[in-house]
Amino acid sequence: MWASDNDFTGQIPDYIGSWSLTELRFQGNSFEGPIPATLSNLAQLTSLRIGDILNGSSSSLAFVNNMTSLSTLVLRNCRISDKLSSIDFSKLTSLNLLDLSFNNITGQVPQTLLNLKLLNFLFLGNNSLSGNLPSSIGSSLKNLDFSYNQLSGTVPSWAKDSQLNLVTNNFVADSSSNSVLPTGWGCLQRNTPCFLGLPHSSSFAVDSGSRRPVSGSDNSFYESDDASLGPASFYITGAQTWGVSNVGRFMDAQNGSYIIYSSRQFLNTLDTELFRNARMSPSSLRYFGIGLENGNYTVTLQFAEFDFPDGQSWKSTGRRVFDIYVQGVRKEQNFDIRKTAGGKSYTAVRKQYIVPVTKNFLEIHLFWAGKGTCCIPTQGYYGPAISALSATPSTFLDLK
Questions:
Q1: Dist. CA 47–CA 45, nearest whole Å
Q2: In terms of Cα–Cα distance, which of 161, 22, 163 is closest to 94?
């Protein structure tokens, strides 16, 4: 059963637990919690995807224990307050993808979860997990997201053979950790930001997805950002002035691309080259300014939609909708690039915000909250996209 992208409201009905289903998908709606415990009766489910519960009481994970046939389990942003130990992962032997990100899950990561032989994708970011990571993982597990938790200790040796996102935790940067993670990874831990109190930069600008730097008409030098990011990865520049983190897998996509390109001419801009490429994410895309001088900054984000063509084609009905956070404050909810551009594709849109930098660190977060379309122009096509961004010190004239 597929009931996504309909903006249904209210609670998920209890009676669904009496149906005979092998697939249940409730994403892109506006449901309230909790997730009904009666779903535990759906023992034949192979795929369960529920996302973005807006409000209501929190849910438990216990109902999952009867679903021993699951291959895909997504309970993303569902207001779940529980521990992973509530699930007996030894029974979920068919599990290939698990996404419990953006909840309030506490406790430690169980070894039984990481030992699952068929598990390939694991997304547990933006929770309250603590303790050390298990010492071993299954042979198929290659994509792991633990970002934005309270995990600690040393980075396990298996990290060198996996795509692992550990941004914003409490790990120790020692010689063994530095040998298995990208250079500068310690700059993105909670209590060890680089250059704290010793800033080395007053601005930065990035041309997202580009292979070559670009000089903009605003006199900014936009550095290239062609890092090969996947479902659970991050990158920091050699000068450690900025970084980028991506989380998520394009579901049902044949060739889910995180960088998209267009050769078209773009309107409403003097800088068409900035918009040739864009970085896209199916869940969560973050950019970081590292070692900035403290003070107020003007953050400029530049967008252009170019995969939903204008006209009467069915492809023109696609909608890309996401939220924008800067320094943890939501600046835009249900932001739609094309709608903001007057319903036009290939048209530049610029959003500016004045924000404080107090610990020599800046965070820009583009977050897919389940809204928009999922499968236009191709199956599995959704999530935030950005063409370029910059942060410069604010002056009195910047204030609006």
A1: 6
A2: 22
Answer yes or no: are the C-beta atoms of 252 and 379 closer than 8 Å.
yes
pLDDT tens by residue, 266-283: 999 999 999 999 999 999
Domain positions in the chain: 9-188, 204-398
Q: What is the full DSSP assignment across 239-270?
A: T-SEEEEEE---TT-SS--SEEE--S--BS-S
Task: Kindly report the number of other CB atoms within 10 A of residue 124's CB atom.
Answer: 25
**What is the pLDDT, as a whole number, of residue 177?**
78
Dist CA 252 CA 229 (whole Å): 19
- Tell me which of 3.20.20.70, 3.40.50.300, 2.60.120.430, 2.40.50.140 is the CATH number of domain 204-398: 2.60.120.430
At 73-93, the pLDDT tens digits run: 999 999 999 999 999 999 999
Place of tokens 């996302």: 51
At 275 the three-state DSSP class reads helix
Lookup result for tokens 């973050």 = 286
**Is 383 in a helix, a strand, or coil?**
coil
Tell me which CATH homologous superfamily contains domain 9-188: Ribonuclease Inhibitor (3.80.10.10)
Asked if 25 and 45 touch (Cβ cutoff 8 Å), the reply is no
102 Cβ partners below 8 Å, 6+ apart?
A: 76, 77, 125, 126, 127, 284
Residues 6 or more apart whose Cβ sits within 8 Å of residue 372 = 5, 28, 318, 319, 320, 321, 322, 336, 382
- By the 10 Å C-beta count (0-12 exposed, 13-18 middle, 19+ buried), 340 is classed as middle
Tokens of 343: 């319903």
Q: What is the pTM of this model?
A: 0.95
List the beta strands (DSSP E) in 166-241. 170-171, 204-208, 214-215, 221-225, 232-236
Name, in order, each residue with C-beta under 8 angstroms of 161's C-beta and a sequence gap of 6 or more. 142
Predicted local distance difference test score (pLDDT) of residue 159: 92
Mean pLDDT over 391-396 rounds to 85
Q: pLDDT digits over 305-322, tens only?
A: 987 877 767 666 778 999
